[in-house]
Amino acid sequence: MTRPDMDKTLLKGLMILEIIAKSDQGAMSISELANATGLTRSNVHRVLQTLAYAGYLTQHPETGLYESNTRLFELGVQQISRLDVRRIAPPHMRTLVEQVGETTHLSILQGIDVVYIDEVPGPQPVRTHTVVGDRAPAYAVATGKALLSQRPLSYVEAYADALQPHTRATNCTLRAVARDLEKCARQGYAVNRGEWRESVAGVAAPIFGRDGSAIAAIGISAPMDRLTAATAARIGPVVREAAQAISARLGYRSAEIQPASGASSVR
C-alpha cells in the first residue's frame, strides 16, 4: 500500500490523545508530553489547545494538566452500538417482513448518505432490492430521513450544497428537507414516496443506542403502486415498533421514540 500524503498535525494530535488515554495517571503536563513525543513544548501546547477546543481533552483548572474525558468513550460506545445492531436486528427484521410482507433493510448514516448494512427480502414476486454496502442520499430515502430527523438542523445545513434532485418528488431545498424531517421526528417514522427511485416507496424508523443517539434505521421498501400513501400510514407505526424493540435490546431505556434536541428547531 502506498503511503498517503499524511497530515502531520493530525498525526501529532492522535499520538498525544493515545499517550494521555493510556497513561496511568490519566493526566499529563506539556513537558511530559513533549518528552514522550519528541515534539517541542510549543508544538505540544498548540495541539493540546486544539484538542481541548474540540472537546477531546480537558485542562485541569488548578494543575494545568491535560486529561482525557468521555468524548472518546462516547465515540467508542456509538461504534460498538453500530456493530451490535447488525447482530441484534435480524430477528426483528424477519418479524417485520412477516408482518408487512415487504423487503426490510437496515441502514446507518455516513455524512449525507445512508449505507445499507443488512437486508431481509420480502415474499412478493415483484419487490425492491437493496445491495448491502450500497449508498443512497439520506434526504431522499426513508431510512436516511429517519436518521436525519434525529440530528440538529445544523447537521443538514452543513450539507446544503449536496442536496440534489433525483426525481421530480425529491425534496432538495433546505427548507423543504427541514419541513419533512420535522414531520418525521414528530411521528417517529419517515416516508419516502419516489424521491430516490421514481417507482419505489419506503417507510423507516430510527434505532437508538444506549446513549440515546440514533445509530441506525430499520425500513421497508416496495413498489409505489403497492406501498400507497394509505398503506405507508398504516405500516409506519409497525415499523416504529420494530425500531423500538431493537433499541430496547441495545439498552435504550425510553419506551417512546423522542425527537432529538435539534428536531424542534427544524422549520
Helix and strand topology:
Elements: H1 8-22, E1 27-28, H2 30-37, H3 41-53, E2 57-59, E3 66-68, H4 71-100, E4 103-110, E5 113-120, E6 135-137, H5 142-148, H6 153-157, H7 174-187, E7 190-193, E8 200-208, E9 214-223, H8 229-249
Antiparallel strand pairs: 1-3, 2-3, 4-5, 4-9, 5-6, 7-8, 8-9
Helix pairs in contact: 1-3, 2-3, 4-8
Please tell me about this protein's structure.
With 267 residues, this protein is an alpha+beta fold. It has helices spanning 8-22, 30-37, 41-53, 71-100, 142-148, 153-157, 174-187, 229-249, and strands at 27-28, 57-59, 66-68, 103-110, 113-120, 135-137, 190-193, 200-208, 214-223. The strands form two sheets. A six-stranded antiparallel β-sheet has the order 6-5-4-9-8-7, sandwiched between helices. The radius of gyration is 22 Å and the shape is elongated.
Helix vs. strand class: alpha+beta
Write down how many β-strands occur, each being a DSSP E stretch of 2 or more residues: 9
Give the N-to-C terminal Cα separation. 47 Å
Give Rg in angstroms.
22 Å
Number of helical elements: 8
Number of domains: 2
CATH architecture annotation of the largest domain: 2-Layer Sandwich
CATH class of the largest domain: Alpha Beta
Largest sheet: 6 strands, antiparallel
Elements, N to C (H/E): HEHHEEHEEEHHHEEEH
Widest sheet, order of strands: 6-5-4-9-8-7
CATH superfamily of the largest domain: GAF domain
- Point out poorly predicted stretches: 255-267
Shape: elongated
As a percent range, the share of helical residues equals: 40-55%
Averaged pLDDT: 87
Strand content: 15-25%
CATH topology tier name of the largest domain: Beta-Lactamase
